[in-house]
Amino acid sequence: DAGVTQSPTHLIKTRGQHVTLRCSPISGHKSVSWYQQVLGQGPQFIFQYYEKEERGRGNFPDRFSARQFPNYSSELNVNALLLGDSALYLCASSLEGIANEKLFFGSGTQLSVL
Amino acid sequence: AQRVTQPEKLLSVFKGAPVELKCNYSYSGSPELFWYVQYSRQRLQLLLRHISRESIKGFTADLNKGETSFHLKKPFAQEEDSAMYYCALRGTGTASKLTFGTGTRLQVTL
């Protein structure tokens, strides 16, 4: 079991650019969630997707968007990057994305915006 | 609104000493509470959750609704317990949305 995989592991962008982060859930998991972890803080919820539909959205601007594909992998897109978007972006997967399920986290993508 | 507070950024204890990592929460309904751990160079992983009432690696946590707390305890700290610990809350009907605290780094020294 490869676990949740995220790519790339590190990324450097400049202000105003666009970035796409990718996540592959554990085989059999249909729900993917995205979290942003700024240095010194706990992870903060961005999105949850299940069966290609958005199930939940955190308090993030419209510059953040995501989608889920038929194979349950997911992309997180961030437009018009700001310095404050520099963070570790975590992806988590679960079977059905319902309460009482265990979440499995990936190792994250470290995004640096210069 | 839901909030999780971990008042200590760093907790340093000697090997064999008792450990208590504090967690307080704010939520109007009946939350699910969790402790996640991140060891050096490893991914974030679930340590335990209150609904299971289990002990993992010697750690326990009891949900105290009166004090809105979910403190993590271990009677005798081990070197391998050194890690970053996050308390998290999941509200009713919020599926995968977890609200995390800022984390406490536990440092166990000889």
Biggest sheet statistics of chain B: 6 strands, mixed
Largest sheet features of chain A: 7 strands, mixed
Low-confidence stretches of chain B: none
**Global shape of chain B:** globular
Q: Share of helix among residues of chain A?
A: under 10%
Given the structure, what is the number of helices of chain A? 0
Instruction: Quickly give the structural class of chain A.
Output: mainly beta
Rg of chain A (CA only): 13 Å
Strand content of chain A: over 45%
Name the assembly state.
Answer: heterodimer
Helix content of chain B: under 10%
What are the secondary-structure elements of chain B, in order, as H or E? EEEEEEEEEEE
Terminal-residue CA separation of chain B = 41 Å
Please provide the count of β strands of chain A. Answer: 11
Q: What is the overall pLDDT average of chain A? A: 94
Are there runs of chain A of 5+ residues with pLDDT below 50, and where? none
Cα distance, first to last residue of chain A? 36 Å
Radius of gyration of chain B: 13 Å
Please work out how many helical segments of chain B DSSP would assign. 0
